[in-house]
Amino acid sequence: MSEQMMKAVGLYNYLPVEHPESLIDIKIPKPVPAGRDLLVSVKAISVNPVDTKVRKPKERTEERPRVLGWDVAGVVEQTGPDCTLFKPGDEVYYAGSIVRPGGNSEFHLVDERIVGTKPASLDFAQAAALPLTAITAWEGLFDRLGISKNPADNEGKAILIIGAAGGVGSIAVQLARYAGLAVIGTASRGESAEWARSLGADHIINHYQDFVPQLKEIGYDQVEYIFCLNSTEKHWRNMAETIAPQGKICSIVETDELLDLTLLKNKSVTFVWELMFTRSTYQTPDMIEQHKLLNELSRMVDQGLIRTTISEVLEPINAANLKKAHAILESGRTTGKIVLANF
């Protein structure tokens, strides 16, 4: 029997996005699920900064095409023999694993423990905008910063979200508001400030200016929590000055320079990283927490508590449209999420 093939978008060389071969349309073998893997028929995908970081120029060539893409909404086509959480026909959404082939393909294998049931109130494109950013925001706020989901516990407390209008920021603002925190977002353009306010930010300050005087203007001497979603080293001194004694800072952005942790010492401040791929990369015992949080997020979306942050849909899913999406992301001026639908 001949091997079944499927459409995908991949790369052999790591190139600038404008290069004709930075992303190419390819045909690759359709995979078969084993163990706890689901085979998902991909209906929509979205792009994230991680896609552009992985694709950017480097001295390496792949013998087999590398497929990117870490946000998928689709339908379970087939389940591995050890699956217990899903069955064929189930509509799902998830972000996948950075150490496995990505989801920019007609069919995709993913461990069911990091997959959630798609919100019933959303179409596939709207759902595909959510997983990676929502998992990052959820883990950052509730797992890493240890914020309670009970609004009564957060009365009088504030969080500063640096980069409030981006993909993760758009979800973090909503979740922090849901948890009862006063939400201060940073933005530098009128359009992005308006977007963050529409999602529930109480105040907006400019991340190109000193934080302390801007916070004082809106009645805050300090904040209990900071969630940094943009240029950790650039904002490091500002964060150290702004954080309350015994406060907590979480960042998702790797640094090009060493950070002076001593700046946090006198205030006994906690600094913690968040990477939503940690659980899937290391197969941690609590990997199933991503399944649970995506299901909880689905319920919140269907109850109207959280809204999708989709801002643009490109059709179909192909190399030309993915290049366009990567170029928009690399401009650094996006609000919300860019989604591609249908092969």
TrEMBL record:
GO terms for cellular component: cytoplasm. CDD domains: AL_MDR (cd08252). Coiled coil: none annotated. Keywords: Cytoplasm, Metal-binding, NADP, Oxidoreductase, RNA-binding, Zinc. It is found in: Cytoplasm. The keyword Cytoplasm applies. GO terms for molecular function: oxidoreductase activity; RNA binding; zinc ion binding. It comes from the Bacteria. Pfam families: ADH_N, ADH_zinc_N_2. Residues 18-340 form the Enoyl reductase (ER) domain. SUPFAM superfamilies: GroES-like, NAD(P)-binding Rossmann-fold domains. Homotetramer. Belongs to the zinc-containing alcohol dehydrogenase family. Quinone oxidoreductase subfamily. This is Zinc-type alcohol dehydrogenase-like protein. It comes from Paenibacillus nanensis.
